[in-house]
Design goal:
CATH superfamily of the largest domain: Gcn5-related N-acetyltransferase (GNAT)
Largest sheet: 13 strands, mixed
CATH class of the largest domain: Alpha Beta
Distance between the termini: 25 Å
Radius of gyration: 22 Å
Number of helices: 11
Order of helices and strands: EHHHEEEEHEEHHEHHHEEEHEHE
Strand content: 25-35%
Structural class: alpha+beta
Helix content: 25-40%
Number of strands: 13
CATH architecture of the largest domain: 3-Layer(aba) Sandwich
Number of domains: 2
């Protein structure tokens, strides 16, 4: 029988980290955004209201974690997923053998828990087991490109304009200086400072603050990088022109995928196309180091599709407590979750 524990204070949440990490060694999350290094760091910077971290157990063993909090939003008490806003994937990690039972237990808990009025859970996969709870709506899609064969074979299939412009920009830059590509797996403060500075400079030139400044996320990014680096979950790609950093991509990794989280380039060198040059080198690195995918995360910017990215849908779950009702427990004859295997 699956039971539920509720973590309601930060000290208990911090103390839960080691056990949570052990659970993820057996039930590996698909993305870094579902790991405690990301979610606990997010809570330490942006958390508000009251913690409501739901831990599902079977015979004391963790079989699922759903990290939430309750806060006031638009004059209502909202139950929100930890990580919302700055995370591109927020599906909870459930042991697939217990998904159906976990959702039954979760539904009963939500119906009996009086301290929320609305539940707004975003950035869920289109096949999330949580859709059994109520209505889901289309959310901002993500996109990724899948690698086949060598980088040269992949690159030869890119649009002619993209390949021609890359060559011309590179030749133009090399006539007056040297270009150097760098990959870092540590939370190098020089590279992180360059990312934050260049990102702000680029957006200020267009009259907007940019996501780092508007969310006051600089400290968060530095702390996440420091938390990810010891777990080998971090990659920072940088392009140097005459030993000056002119473009940076902050990426996170899994065993199969590089997730391109944030990029920036020096607007003073925009005519050299260094952002495009760095992306080409980073994708080459991904090919040559055995990754299967480059994930562009949220957004439908046209440049992603010129690199071969394919979109995939996500959803958002919206619940009103007044509409909650408890169904009879879901019973299956097997141990697998049909939603995950669809």
């Amino acid at each position: 029988m699956v039971t539920i524990d509720v973590i309601e204070n930060t000290a208990h949440f911090c103390g839960f980290r080691a056990e949570w990490s052990r659970f993820l060694e057996a039930t590996v999350p698909e993305t870094p955004f579902q790991r405690p290094e990301w979610l606990m760091t997010w809570w330490s910077h942006f958390g508000s209201g009251s913690l409501r971290v739901l831990v599902f157990r079977e015979c004391e063993r963790i079989v699922g974690v759903l990290p939430c909090f309750v806060h006031r939003w638009n004059e209502r008490r909202q139950l929100t997923l930890i990580g919302s806003g700055l995370s591109d994937y927020l599906d909870p990690v459930f042991d697939p053998r217990y998904c159906s039972e976990i959702v039954d237990v979760l539904e009963r808990h939500l119906a009996s828990f009086p301290d929320w009025e609305i539940c707004d859970w975003q950035d869920l996969s289109s096949s999330t087991p949580l859709q059994r709870l109520g209505p889901v709506f289309v959310d901002t899609p993500c996109s990724q490109l899948a690698f086949e064969n060598s980088f040269e074979t992949y690159f030869a299939k890119r649009p002619k304009d993209l390949r021609r412009n890359l060559r011309r920009y590179r030749e133009k830059a090399q006539q007056i200086g040297t270009i150097r590509f760098e990959v870092g797996a540590n939370s190098d403060p020089i590279l992180l400072d360059a990312l934050i500075e260049l990102h702000g400079a680029r957006w200020r030139r267009s009259g907007e603050p940019g996501v780092i400044e508007s969310n006051r996320a600089a400290g968060f990014l530095r702390d996440v990088a420091a938390a990810f680096a010891p777990r080998d979950l971090l990659r920072i790609f940088a392009l140097h022109f005459n030993e000056r950093i002119v473009a940076v991509v902050l990426a996170f990794r899994s065993s199969t995928t590089l997730f391109s989280y944030l990029s920036a380039f020096d607007p003073e060198y925009e005519t050299f196309g260094f952002g495009r040059e760095l992306l080409a080198e980073a994708i080459r690195y991904a090919h040559e180091n055995g990754y299967r995918y480059w994930n562009f995360l949220r957004g439908e910017e046209s440049y992603k599709f010129s690199w071969g990215a394919q979109p995939f849908s996500k959803c958002r779950l919206m619940l009103n407590r007044s509409d909650m009702h408890i169904r009879q427990p879901h019973v299956t004859s097997g141990e697998t979750n049909p939603l995950l295997n669809a």
